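User: Sequence for PemK-like, MazF-like toxin of type II toxin-antitoxin system below. Tokens please.
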Amino acid sequence: MSGAPVWWLLAGAAVALALVVAWRLLTRPGSRPAPRAGGGPAPGEIWWADVPFEDGTGSKVRPCLVLRADGRGAAVLKITSQDQSHRRDHVEIATRHWDPKARHNSHLDLTDPIRVSRGSFTKRAGRLDAGTWSKVRRLHRI
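Assistant: Structure tokens for PemK-like, MazF-like toxin of type II toxin-antitoxin system:
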């Protein structure tokens, strides 16, 4: 009988420790896309924005992934609906969560980020899934 209270105490301590570890892993900085501050774009979010062409000849309203954001704008990666599965600098991302009209997945361009002014963001579409966001963060050292 005297062994039972010790067993329950050890089991309770193990459960408490597991809960603390799980909570710390889920809430550590950078493990999830950051929440929006003040309604503007935040890292890990997908937004529709007027994104300038790389050659400076114009722009196009398109979905993009926010990498970094400040009061003036954000660094983004372009998202395309064109099949880029043959390219190593693109990754397929699920589209159904942020574009219900899409009939197939999109591709995220992992090459150099593009700077977009804050006023060019038109509509928040959603968040990138946590697994892909983690890979993007490592690649772009966020």
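The first helix runs from residue 3 to 27.
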